[in-house]
Amino acid sequence: GQQVMQIPQYQHVQEGEDFTTYCNSSTTLSNIQWYKQRPGGHPVFLIQLVKSGEVKKQKRLTFQFGEAKKNSSLHITATQTTDVGTYFCAGYLGERGSTLGRLYFGRGTQLTVWP
Amino acid sequence: DAGITQSPRHKVTETGTPVTLRCHQTENHRYMYWYRQDPGHGLRLIHYSYGVKDTDKGEVSDGYSVSRSKTEDFLLTLESATSSQTSVYFCAISESTILHRRGNTGELFFGEGSRLTVL
Fold first, then answer.
1. Does the distance separating the beta carbons of B106 and A31 come in below 8 Å?
2. Does the distance separating the beta carbons of B108 and A45 come in below 8 Å?
3. Is the pLDDT of residue B49 over 50?
4. Domain count of chain B?
5. Which of A44, A102, A107 sits opposite B42 (nearest CB)?
6. How distant is the Cα of B17 from the closest Cα of chain A, in angstroms?
7. A105 touching B (Cβ < 8 Å)
8. Number of structural domains, chain A?
9. Where are the beta strands (DSSP E) in A1-115?
């Protein structure tokens, strides 16, 4: 079964509205990474969270890692048309410090922003 | 952008034919991955490599094989292509997955993708 679940699958917003995508795992994650894929492009790394309860910001983007390290969220404030794309979360399963070859991706949230 | 090149970028083939996709990197990264991307399924790991001649299966490895004879090249082979293998294939590389190593984010750098259509 899928190791990392992500919702919603699609989100359509008007420019200026906020957007949030959620990521959940049934097992503890060593870390959580977030990627963005523009239409027709390839995934590009945005950020990594490692610590329990960690919050990081990149301009209008806020990333959170849950206290139990089983969930994460990406929130975009006041979306712009340049935010269009698919946002993926991804995580290594297991305890921090281990060598893990498999990065499990969520199915992604496709964001559409209309002017 | 990281030095990753995938070839071919586009390919149309017929059911039952063999297909090989190539991923070439100039970053000397240890880890290399092959993912496939399909609508509604996100990115699914096919195979990955943690060194020359060291490979392991991912989530959807059936029908695929890989080889890594040099650090810079990771080949994905479909021995007998089927229509269900029509997809966009992404190669990715990472320096390390040892998360406690200072300065290492474990991030993946992706290639541009190879679109394969099996008729």
1. yes
2. yes
3. yes
4. 1
5. A107
6. 27
7. yes
8. 1
9. 4-7, 10-14, 19-25, 29-37, 44-49, 55-58, 61-65, 71-76, 85-93, 103-105, 109-114
User: Domain with B79 in it: what CATH number?
Assistant: 2.60.40.10
Cα distance between residue A32 and residue A71, in whole Å: 9
| Gap from A78 CA to chain B (nearest CA, Å) | 26
Q: Which of residues 2-61 of A touch B (CB under 8 A)?
A: 6, 9, 30-31, 33, 35, 42-45, 48, 50
CB contact under 8 A, A103 and B100: no
Domain span at A18: 4-114
CA distances from A38 to A3, A87, B15, B101 (A): 24, 9, 31, 30
> Any idea what the CATH number is for the domain that residue A73 is in?
2.60.40.10
Tens-digit pLDDT profile for chain A (115 aa)? 567 899 999 999 999 999 999 999 988 888 899 999 999 999 999 999 989 999 999 999 999 999 999 999 999 999 999 999 999 999 887 555 444 557 889 999 999 999 9
